[in-house]
Amino acid sequence: MPNKSNNHASLALLQVTEITKKFGDFYANDSINLSIKAGKVHALLGENGAGKSTLVKMMYGALQPSSGSIHWQGKDVSIASPAHARELGIGMVFQHFSLFEALTVAENISLALPVELRQGDLSQRIADLSKDYGLPLNPSALVADLSVGERQRIEIVRCLLQQPKLLIMDEPTAVLTPQEAKALFATLRRLVEEGCAVLYISHRLEEVKQICHDATILRHGKLVAEVDPQKETAATLAQLMVGSSVHQVSRQANDQVGDILLQLCHLNQKASTPFGVDLVDLQLQVKAGEILAVAGVAGNGQGELFAAISGEELSPDQTSIIMFGENCNTLTINQRRCLGAAFVPEERMGHGAVEHLTLTDNILLSRHACNDTNAPLNRGWIGIDRSQLDQLNQTIGLDYDVRKSKEDAVAGSLSGGNLQKFVVGRELNRQPKILVINQPTWGVDAGAAALIRQAVIDLSRQGSAILIISQDLDEIFELADTIAVMSRGQLSPIYPASELSREEIGLMMAGSHEQSTLASGA
Amino acid sequence: MSPYEAILLTIITASTPLLLAAIGELVVERSGVLNLGIEGMMVMGAVCGFAAAHVSGSAWLGVIAAIVAGIAMSLLFGLLTQTLITNQVATGLSITLLGLGLSGLIGSGFVGLPGVQLANVSIPWLSDLPYVGRLIFGQDPLVYISIALTVAVAYVLSRTRIGLIIRAVGQSHDSAHALGYRVVAVRYACIAFGGATSGLAGAYLSLVYTPQWIENMTAGRGWIALALVVFSTWLPGRLAAGAYLFGGVWILGLYAQAMGMGIPSQLLSSLPYVVTIVALVIISTNRRLSVINTPASLGQGFVPDR
Questions:
Q1: Do residues A165 and A89 both lie within one domain?
Q2: Which residues fall within 8 angstroms of residue A501, CB to CB, at 6 or more apart?
Q3: Any chain B CB within 8 A of the CB of A273?
Q4: Quick one: DSSP state of residue A271?
């Protein structure tokens, strides 16, 4: 056991006392106390916007607290910068990696190391250490060519090279397959056995129960509970995080599956950017009343698949994308919308909605050409029917519980979850017969996620064909009737959701279904 | 001197100011800053270099004055874009306009005055070699400096830690900041280096190429340098090749015109642009390589979020 009976064993490695961070009038963190002990995995739980990231950034020196103190190994410290934090022995693996795509693994790591650790053969040390901890890495590979899981390894190895006493991990498994997550847990367990402390930020409660010794729960910037995760259930933890019990998504069996509405026949498409993914011989069908989920780790061609189906990227051949029995390869986005399809992209800001425009203007952008359920938004040749738009905005706001500062707010002023509800609501309000939705609840709090998922299920049970692209397995099992897995631009066969286990999906995410194609293609 | 030697000599002197200005801008852009003020910094270097040399009688003092003037102009650009976060395109354009106007004002008393020419270096024995001696070993010192700078920039960018930091800052200033690098300081240093080489390029015009002061004597060379940087996909070796190719076709066009070969002069004067663009487009067809070298945060101001 790492806890030896010396004086320091009882002392916390890192002690945060009454720490507060204000942004203007907004309290991102309000008098938080937290104490992390060596040799333990400490969980930090909370919804999006609960203040987890702010708290962690202060521990890592990326933000300065407005008030409160931080004690490191019993001494009062003010952590001035990330470099200072690393000097103290605090390493951090970010959720959004601070990596340089165009540099190699070794160059990326070298940039983050202090002078004394750069000496000698860094590449060799990276290769050795990464192998030793079960996170193999090629030091001379270009980051742009690596998968998300491998990129995370770079961050972890970079931290480990500095032999940190405290390792902070921000949602590390969000981008991993179940198998990769398992390997990561093994690495964490080994670190903890070596006496390192880990601060583990997550909202995946099963994981927290699996590997964490202590848990601190934040809500709206305030500390709400400190618990022993082993003694809690996932449901009680969730209730502490959200503050009320989360509405359960209800889903009836779909007994009336209809005709095939959306079909891909041997879709091949070269990537339009050098770091993009080529789509290889994709085939799928979605029937009326059915939800098909495409699982897979981000960056395996999901974005390209979405762009091809929505018409953002036109496919060169003529017959690979079929909607309602009609070839629509050459149709533009609006033409596909007019057929009865709707599309919700992954990035809500900048892709799904324009930041500086009002909500009504954002409605107009996706619906001016084909507003099938309501009266036309156009008035005459060039006029716009503002009253129709206002009414539509109000309906969407009410139906999808979009919380906003004023009725026709600017899209950028909405929080992530509310904007996602708005974007989804805008498309679902049309009652599309085909819906393609990419990462429907990414970075959205549990309440909003439940609402969006329920709306998607309800739409399918009214006879629409729905294609969901997601990397969240919980979400997939909650929604999907059928599942296909995407890896490196290839798609597995479609399986009924009831016939697949998480482990099987994990293996396919890692590419187990590709082999035959690769062998014949090579 | 044989005619072919004369042609090659003029090609080198025509290409050197382009190379000098462009190699500095390459470093600036690698750090993620787009400085469109090269023309303005060059012309300020030209007038200050000429004035200092004329007043003091020393060409080398002129060179130093040109470098200082270039740096001063670039630091003004840095202050505006890095500290006050103005738009880099608009600021760069105004630096060019400011430089052209201010140089006319400073130079108004120097028009038509005799200049001081920077003496050629001639290395004993070697410069007497037939054919190549004069070309390789008897140039003015700025030619050697420009080549040394190109080699040094290529080495520093690809092989040293300073170069790695510059590339990192240009790739993603947010990540570089998160790692604790001083993004703005790195960019200031690169901007000042770009200013120094632009000033030097200006000095080349007024102290070597045509040792006198003529208003607007840079005649658009700053813009050509800028284009060379982009078409070279930010690689110093390609940049040097592009600069010499441009200079070469330009001078050959002039000779062709002088010899009365019956080719329309408009065609000849557009030829260097066409040839350079075509050549650089062909060598940069490897899109992957170009994307890797393109500074991803080019032209974006950096504001840390704290």
A1: yes
A2: none
A3: yes
A4: -
